[in-house]
Amino acid sequence: MVAHRRDRHRRHIRSRLGRLQHDPGQVMADFDTKARKARLRLALAGAVAVAALVGGGVLALSLLDSDDSAGQPDAKTPSSAAPSTSQSSTAAPSQVFTPAEAPRVPILKPRTNAEGIGTGFPPTALGATSAAVTYWEDLDLLDDVIARKQWTAIAAKDSPATIDQGVTEVRKVREGVGLPPSGGNPDGLTFATSVKAALVRSLDKSGDVIDVWMVYDRYATIRDKGADENPLRDEVTNLILKWDGTDWKVTTEAQYTAKVKGPRAYDPASKYAWAEGWRVVSDG
């Protein structure tokens, strides 16, 4: 699936580079660092949490517990996996929704920033979901130097291979679109990633390791040429996140990747997609 996704991204980027290079007034160069860090965050509107008991994993998790205050139970523990009374009244187990009909899950804003990528999320299922969405939307797609710094900031300390894999993917995409393996972003070309739905599954009984699946769109913007007429849509990916005591970190350890199971396809109008655990997300 990674290879197929990479091929689609290459075609998307190559077509945008073609439009860029046909303009003689534009040349290939690094973007200004501040411009890179000001990546456009595109997300669907909404602000209400949804009772989301997600099946298919070792432990069902609730996306509803967005309160990370000390007085509230930890949403990544089994005792808090079930919705509260007030949450049940919003979306009782007997009710059937589609992702489009159900209340949207509000993505928490990062409390800190490291190398242009949002960090600092609470130790809850919603915190893990918010971390995955933020990481995927903030990661640099073509600058391998920036990508290495970002992956270093979000990778688990006991999973150094995660950093190399992330950088390798960037370099493969660069080579696939005719750019040198290492370098910055082409001047005048920016990309924005918008995650629109997520599904979470716990990979252990503690809730400290969570697999987050995401459906996203990706848009390119070419300076002086307007918005992307043919963006990538409905792409699917996942990140495995591990709580390290301070934040959610990405891991690619074999003991966890072996437990990953692909979910039913996302369809905003499908009650089966909702039952699988897919939820529409929005900026919190």
Describe it:
The protein has 284 residues and is of the alpha+beta class. It has one domain. It contains eight helices and eight strands; from the N terminus they run αααβββαααββββααβ. Strand 2 and strand 3 form a beta hairpin. Helix 1 crosses helix 6 and helix 5 packs antiparallel against helix 6. The longest helix has 20 residues. The radius of gyration is 19 Å and the shape is globular.
Keywords:
29% helix; 284 residues; two-stranded antiparallel sheet; six-stranded mixed sheet; alpha+beta
Strand order of the largest sheet: 1-8-4-5-6-7
The amount of helix comes to: 25-40%
What is the terminal separation in angstroms?
30 Å
Task: Tell me the structural class.
Answer: alpha+beta
Radius of gyration: 19 Å
DSSP strand count: 8
Q: What's the story with the biggest beta sheet? A: 6 strands, mixed
Which regions have little confidence, pLDDT < 50, spanning 5+ residues?
22-75, 77-92
Number of helices: 8
In total, how many domains does the architecture comprise? Answer: 1
Overall morphology: globular
Q: Sketch the topology as an H/E string, one letter per element.
A: HHHEEEHHHEEEEHHE
Biased composition (Low complexity): 77-95
Transmembrane segments: 42-64
Region (Disordered): 68-121
Keywords: Membrane, Plasmid, Transmembrane, Transmembrane helix
In short:
The protein is of the alpha+beta class. The protein has helices spanning 2-21, 33-37, 85-90, 125-138, 144-154, 161-176, 254-257, 271-276; strands at 105-107, 112-114, 117-119, 189-202, 209-222, 232-243, 248-250, 279-283.
